[in-house]
Every structure is written in C-alpha cells, then in structure tokens.
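wait is this the right file?? whatever heres the structure
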C-alpha cells in the first residue's frame, strides 16, 4: 500500500488474487508475510498524474497527522469502545479518503497504545461501530462476527410497501469492480450484485426483514438483521427485491433520490437512510451478552416521522 500510493486497495487485492504478485516466484495471498531476503515481484501498475499528485498530498497530510476527533460513545471499558458513527465518515482512510474514524480516534487518544476496528460500516451508513482496545479483544470479537455469534440489526427506509410475508432474503452476492476512466488503471469502483445460486462466484448471503411500519406515503420502515456480513449486503438485497433504500446513491432509485433532496411534502433527505441500530455480542473478557442500541440520527428521525410515522 505504501509503494502503490494512489491505487485503490480494491485493485491491489485484485492483482494479488489474480496471481500477479509473487514472493520468491510463488503466488502470494493477501495475508502472506515477507521476511528479510524475500524477492517480491509486482506487476506494472499505472496511475494518472492527477491521482499520483493527490496521493502524494494525502501522504504528506498523513505525515502531519490526522485531525483529532472523538465520537459519541455508546459503551467503553478497558477492552473495547462502541461509538455512534455519523453518516459521511469512512471508518478508515484510503481510496480517496484522507482520514477515517480510526485515524481520528488515534489522534484524539494518543495515550491509547492499541486501537483497531473490529468491523466496518459503509461510509454513508450511521450507527454502532466497535473498536478494540486490546489485541485479545480484537481477535475475540472478530471471531464472533466470523462465526455469526453477533446480532446486527439495522433500520432502513425503502421506497414502496414491503410485503409483510417477505421475511428472508438468501440470494448469493458477487463483488466486482467498475473500471475506471480511460487513461487510468485500477480506478474501479466497488459494486455488488445478486447472482444465481449455482454461480461459483456467489457468496452465500442471508438477510432477515421485519416491517416496522408501512405508510400511505409509499415508504416502509424496516428492521433488517444480517446473518452474513457481505459488502453492501442490505443495500443490494433490498434493491434486488424492487425496494431500494431511500437516498442510496449506488443501488437506489436515482430520480427519487433527487426529489428527496428537495423540501416538499416530506423534509429533505440528503443521505442514505440506513442506520446500524442494534448490536449484540459476547463481551470479550467476561463473556456476558451485551446489547447496544443507537437511536436514529435527528435527520433520519425527522424524515421517518413524516414518511413512515411510528414510535422510533
């Protein structure tokens, strides 16, 4: 990542997966470790001058240090921090984002020797995000996410009236890249799509949906629980059923999103209506079950009150 400044991480991982990165003439994986004396071969990677300049500016700003910022704390002890991440903030720097949550937290807490992300949220998704304060806590919590021992429920507002009997979505998902503009290499944007159950590239994905309220305005407020943690899982699963999330700029109804930006019968909605609302996990030290909840941000609560009025 240091040597390929300006190349998105997704492209770096892609050339690794394709076997173009070699260590001592053998194929390398993303978690391969190198030792003194190893010979590492990288394929030629071109980036535009504009991207190179931007990457250099970003590198210089990183040297100067990320801006210190604390976030609303939902829970904290000696092992972990749970914050209420605002929409529009990436969880970490990279791919054109200079500073994310983790970099800003580290600057705000210089006394903390260890701070690492346990999991991730999309940049435009708000809500509960866990940060480990110890290596043992990080390993324990990530194992829980991997083994599906956590409970993750989101609030999502979709366009249309969701059928109350449609409760389980188990369509496989495939992650791919949209190629960048001509003259640049690797500047692809990440996308996800539903594929057939027999597609070898499909990753099993399970989403549970519960209707919280369906309104005459044509919107439905949903409680969405994910049993797998695929990239953009909720957004793609809901959109594939014909119910895009309001304000989703990748998989949503773009004409509707434009209308929602303007104040009319409904308040303006200037972000995606997806919020990590509830999280359950076993405490990495005591083993006790912990349940955290993050209330809807005010801008979503105001919109939901008009679009799908209910007790929030």
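ok assuming it is, sequence goes like this
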């Amino acid at each position: 990542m240091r040597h390929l400044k300006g190349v998105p991480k997704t492209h770096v991982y892609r050339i690794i997966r394709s076997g173009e990165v070699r260590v001592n003439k053998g194929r390398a994986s993303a978690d391969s470790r190198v030792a003194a004396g190893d010979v590492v071969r990288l394929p030629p990677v071109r980036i535009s001058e504009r991207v190179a300049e931007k990457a250099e500016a970003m590198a210089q700003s990183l040297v100067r240090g990320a801006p210190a910022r604390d976030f609303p704390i939902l829970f904290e002890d000696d092992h972990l921090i749970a914050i209420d991440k605002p929409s529009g903030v990436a969880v970490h720097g990279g791919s054109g984002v200079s500073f994310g949550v983790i970099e800003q937290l580290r600057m705000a807490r210089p006394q903390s020797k260890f701070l690492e992300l346990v999991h991730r949220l999309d940049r435009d998704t708000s809500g509960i995000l866990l940060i480990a304060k110890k290596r043992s806590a990080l390993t324990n919590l990530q194992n829980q996410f991997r083994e599906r021992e956590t409970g993750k429920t989101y609030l999502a507002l979709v366009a249309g009236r969701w059928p109350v009997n449609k409760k389980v979505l188990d369509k496989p998902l495939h992650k791919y890249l949209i190629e960048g503009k001509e003259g640049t290499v690797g500047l692809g944007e990440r996308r996800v799509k539903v594929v057939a159950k027999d597609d070898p590239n499909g990753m099993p994905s399970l989403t549970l949906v519960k209707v919280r309220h369906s309104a005459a305005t044509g919107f439905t407020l949903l409680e969405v629980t994910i049993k797998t943690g695929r990239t953009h899982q909720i957004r793609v699963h809901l959109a594939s059923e014909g119910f895009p999330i309001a304000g989703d700029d990748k998989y949503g109804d773009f004409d509707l999103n434009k209308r929602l930006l303007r104040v009319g019968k409904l308040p303006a909605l200037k972000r995606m209506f997806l919020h990590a609302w509830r999280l359950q996990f076993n405490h990495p030290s005591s083993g006790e079950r912990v349940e955290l909840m993050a209330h809807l941000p005010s801008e979503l609560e105001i919109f939901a009150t008009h679009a799908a009025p209910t007790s929030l």
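The longest helix spans residues 49-64. so i think its the right one actually
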